[in-house]
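Priority: medium. Attachment 1 of 2:
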């Protein structure tokens, strides 16, 4: 039987602290290379003279609305909202937003505009996607609309991967144009204009 070897406790503690510091530094560096915070900032510019946007609704497939759109976006108004991932989850910020298209003269809603955004958690498997469209007033802002705009095909909207292109969808009364940055925390900019 061999004799016990004495352990230098202060040296062992110093080594443990150094290893913990190294692991922490590595984790921070990895977090900077592959950030886990996901959010989507959406800005809408209403360039229409004849139409306002009213009664916003949203459905979040993943995450939540941290800062909502206002009840109305008046003619020539610019407004924004922020959607964020749920903290401490491996999910992104994903959903759909609708606004009713309100005729300023008649005070009647005529159609509904819709915006879909997908800012996934895992960029190794998924990409940022976005879509814009115009629907009739009966279209609900729910999981079905999100699934339709994310996976389906229709004459009511246009969809693209966020790769620098401008999406443009022409409805019967208005045209919606949009861009979306390809980033962990993308910005989606939407312009609404009257058809000539």
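Attachment 2 of 2:
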């Amino acid at each position: 039987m061999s004799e016990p070897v004495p352990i230098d406790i202060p040296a062992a503690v110093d080594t443990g602290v150094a290893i913990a510091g190294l692991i922490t530094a590595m984790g921070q560096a990895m977090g900077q290379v592959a950030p886990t915070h996901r959010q989507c900032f959406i800005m809408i510019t209403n360039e229409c003279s004849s139409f306002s946007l009213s009664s916003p609704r949203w459905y979040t497939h993943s995450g939540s609305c941290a800062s909502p759109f206002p009840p109305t976006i008046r003619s020539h108004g610019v407004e924004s909202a922020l959607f964020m991932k749920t903290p401490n989850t491996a999910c992104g910020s994903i959903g759909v937003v609708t606004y009713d298209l309100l005729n300023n003269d008649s005070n009647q809603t005529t159609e509904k505009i819709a915006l879909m955004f997908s800012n996934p958690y895992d960029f190794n498997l998924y990409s940022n996607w976005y879509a814009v469209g115009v629907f009739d007033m009966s279209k609900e802002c729910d999981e079905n609309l999100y699934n339709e705009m994310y996976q389906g095909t229709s004459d009511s909207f246009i969809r693209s991967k966020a790769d620098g292109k401008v999406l443009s969808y022409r409805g019967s009364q208005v045209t919606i144009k949009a861009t979306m940055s390809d980033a962990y925390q993308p910005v989606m900019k939407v312009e609404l204009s009257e058809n000539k």
